[in-house]
Each structure stands twice: as structure tokens, then as C-alpha cells.
Amino acid sequence: MPLKPFISYAHEDEAFKDALLEHLAGLQRRGLIQPWHDRLIEVGSEWRESIGTSLNGFDLALLLVSRAFLASDFIHSVEIKHLLERRKREGIRVVPIIVRPCAWKLEPIGELQALPGNGKAIISFPEETGERDQAWTAIALQLAQWAEELQSRKPSITDPVTAQEPAKARGDFKARLGDAKNPGLLPPVERLERIRPGENPYVTGTPLPANSPGFFGRVQVLHEILAVLHRPDKPGCVSLLGERRIGKSSLLNQICQALAPVPGLVSIHTTAQDWNRESQQHFYTCLHQAIATAVGKGANEAISDYPRFRDFIYALGQDHGYRFVLVIDEFEEMADNEYFDAGFFSNLRALGERPEYRFGFLTSSRRPLKELCQDHDIESSSFWNIFGIPQILGLLSEQESQDLVIEPMHRSRPAGSRPDPSQLWQTEIKPLTGCHPALIQMVAEVHWNALEGGYEPDRWGLTMGVRDYLEDLWFRHSREEWAVLIRAAAGQRLTVHDPLATDLIRRGLLAPNGEPFSSAFKEVIAQCLPKDSDIPSALEDLEKGAERANRLFESLEKRARSAGRVYRAFKSPDKDGGEELDV
């Protein structure tokens, strides 16, 4: 059966769609692919209905991304929304092809892997030298590979998940037995030496891989986490907290690399992002198979329940002296799984609590474990009790942020085409990003591409892309947190004795001086207020008593609902209007 790609594009970019189809024509003649795009809608057909039907009948989505693509309300609200839902639900491939430079990394599709490699815009490849045809050819070859996999029924991302194929299952477990011969986490200087001249060194839309030259800072939190996991008799348990896209997954990748040379330590790394429908049996089956493979025992007998898994771990620890660390990213998804009940988490607590199992945990989440357990009716498990004080991931320091911009830029650009480092950081990047690592990577990547292509960066597109992320960040917080952020935006000096202000500083929403972490975030706070309000009037509402404050928060929550950005972070149990805030 042919691969059926759905091509999504803005009509301003039709020439790019036609060029793609020309490069796919040979594959189409061979019956390997059967592309669909809106020009195939028959005359007289209702185009919205035709597109809606096609969105459910393909194996792959190709997004021809440009500023016009990002600006299209229909593409954003209908096509992209549906594609990302199918990707999460069914595992279909959604692949951006960047045709014109734009701030796509700051959009919901920014976490996807783009073609051709590195996400360089097609228009940036010179046509007269044949490089543009080479870029299209690389895309066609990748589609041919996927089509051949489909025809030969090789396992792929669209294949059903089975317990017999844990390496392809959702919530993949990747286990490794520590050995002194394994490479560990390299020093910063050696990581930077991996940068290749002429290649964009900034990584966006995906966590930084182990030993990435783009990993800067985090020295203290890295040291403290490893100190707990390195305990000789039994690894400890660590909870890592941080806002979305602050770098939790990137840090976990570096930690797993640092554990690789530790003899006898089995590290298992997984993400719970797609576990919302997985069962306990699937969890134990995949975890057992990963560990058995790592220690060279094979998996002759499937283990799909806690008692047998517990005995398996106990035997490995007692007979061979192995220790175990299970690293779980996106722990919220695991807590949200109805199949993972209080009994399941009680068993995990026993693994991490009792010394004879030699088992530790490292979890990452946005919200504290106790709060997650309370919200999902698994509080009775007391799972969080085996963890010490959470490690909180926040902003980089000013120096680390500048280094993140300047060091990769200088090592990857020719001497005559390097920008002035002070101007680049102070005037182009810092006002948008502050010391937020992911935002720095996103904006620096756009500036690098502009230097490479010899054009001016799309500053307006960058601003709008960053603003979208910052709005999302604002709406994910509670009334109490909004109050602190509004006071900070108004320039009020926050006391060091205010635990909520301290928490927001540690999480990176506020800079160490108590101000919003970037100029752009301060502007977004003002723009997210009700239409008839501004920062001074909102501050007055907070200071004139609970009644006015609650009216302000109700208006903010109404705006959040209208924007489709209502999150569990709202701490308002009263469905009719929320709890009153004591101000």
C-alpha cells in the first residue's frame, strides 16, 4: 500500500508545493506514495469538508512552513490542531518542511523534527548552484524510505504498540548498565569542540542530547542530583521541578550520560508523555525487558506484574550487586493515568524505600509530586514521601546566557561574519528571552540562519512567536501567582520572606531582582489583563480588597477560557467562581 502524505501549505507558497510534487513524481509513478493537497478537491465540492475528510485518511503530514503558513487562522485552528491530536493519539508522523525563514520553533509545531536536516529554509538554499534541488532530493529520499518501510511492514511510528516490542512502544524504556569504559558527561570545553563550522549549533524543538555543546550552566543542580543517585548502597530519589521548556528533559539526558560510567548502576530512562492509556502490565513488561537486556540476562519469561518484577530486581541486586535508577520524564502524564492507581504507586514507593531493592527514582514534572498525587486520588500511596527536597530548575545566570549565545556563534561562524557579541545579546536577544535557555536557543537560531543566508532576521515573527509562548506561560499559573507577577510588573519590591515570590524566582518567571524575567514577559503580563485594565489599575484592584481582586481574577480566567488556555494550575475548587483570594 502506498504512503499517503497530506500536504498542508499556504497558497502564497504554492510554488514550493509544486516543486515538492515534482520531486515526488517518480515515487508516485512507482506506487510508493499517493500525496494529497487541496488542489485535488473536485470542482463543486465543499472544500472545508474535503480537507476535514482528508485529514483522517493519511499516514503522514508534510507542513510547508512559512510566515504565511503560521499566519493562517484555518491552518492553525483546523489543520495543525487536528494533526497534532492525531500525532498524540495515533502516532502519525507530522513533519515540518521550512520553505521560508520564520519563527516556527516558537509555535506548537516547534518541537517536531523538520526536513531537511537542521530545519534550514528551502529558500535559503541557492537555486543556481543546485543546492535547492539537493535539499528537495533529501526530502524525497526520506519519504521513499518511509514508504518502503510501510510496504515491507517494517516497524515504524505508525505500527501498533505491542508488549513484545518494547523498543517501539510508547513510553520507551532505554536501559544501560554502567561500566567504567562508557563515556560520561564531557567537560564544557570538550562539548564545545563538537561544534562544526558552518552548521547551526542551536538546538530547538527537542531536548538537548547528551553531551550537547548547547548545554550550559546547571552545575549546582547537576552535582546535587548526581550526589543522591551515586549513593553506593542504594540510589536515592530525586524530584526535579521546572516550567514547561525550561530544560528539564535536556538536563535528564546529561544526567543519564553522567551515570553511564558508574559500574553496576543500571539507569533506565523513559518519558511518560504518551502513557495516558498504558496499563500497569505494559509498564512492568517493558521495564523488565529493558533491564534484562541491559544486564545481559535476556527476557525469556515475560514479567507483567509487580510481585514478579520486585523479585526480579531483588535477585539482581543480591546476586550481582546491581543498583537501579528509573528516570521518568513528564511524570504528570503518569499521575494522570487512571490505570496507575494508589496501589501501583504504593508498590513503586516500596521499591524506592526499602534498601534491599537498591532502587531509586528521578522524576521530572512541572508541579510538585505531592500536589499531583492529591489531585489524582493517589495521595494514599504517599509516593512523594520517599523524595527529598525537590530540585527546581530555573533561569541561567547572565554569564551563562551570554556564553550560550556567543560561544556557539563564534565557533560556527567564519571570522569575518561574526556579529558583535554585546550588541547581539543586549539588543536582539535578551529583551525577548531574558536568561531563559530554550528561548535563547530559539532566537539565536533565527539570527544564525539570517547571518548564513545574508538577510535580516524576521524580528516581528520572532516577537510574535515568543509572545505566544509567554502567554501560555502566564495562563498556566494560579491566582496567587498572578498577583505576585502583577506586583512585580508594577515594579513593587518583593520581600525575600514571601515564599511564593521566592518560588517564582527559583522557577524562572521572575529574575533574581524580582522583576519579570524579560522585557517581553512584562509586556505580555500587561497585554493579558482585561481590556479595560492596565498594570497600575490591576495593582490597585489587588490592594483594594478581596472583592475587587476576585473580579480581576475572574476576568483573567474568562480570557484564559476564551483563548483555550485553561489549565489544572488554577487553584480554584469552587466551580461557580473560584476560591476567594485573601489579599
Q: Would you kindly provide a written description of the structure presented here, covering whatever features stand out?
A:
There is one protein chain. The protein is of the alpha/beta class. It folds into four domains: 5-152, Toll/interleukin-1 receptor homology (TIR) domain (Rossmann fold); 166-393, P-loop containing nucleotide triphosphate hydrolases (Rossmann fold, 3-Layer(aba) Sandwich), CATH 3.40.50.300; 398-457; 469-562, no CATH class. Helix content is 46%, strand content 9%. The protein is built from 22 helices and nine strands. The chain has helices at 14-29, 47-54, 67-71, 73-90, 131-152, 188-192, 219-229, 248-259, 280-294, 306-320, 331-335, 342-353, 369-375, 398-412, 421-433, 437-453, 459-475, 479-489, 499-507, 519-527, 535-543, 546-562, and strands at residues 5-8, 60-65, 93-98, 173-177, 238-242, 265-271, 323-329, 359-365, 391-393. A six-stranded mixed β-sheet has the order 4-6-7-8-5-9, with helices on both faces. Strands 1-2-3 form a three-stranded parallel β-sheet. The radius of gyration is 25 Å and the shape is globular. The termini are far apart. The relative contact order is 0.08.
Characteristic key phrases:
single chain; 583 residues; alpha/beta; Rossmann fold; 4 domains; 6-stranded mixed beta sheet; 3-stranded parallel beta sheet; 22 helices; globular; disordered C terminus
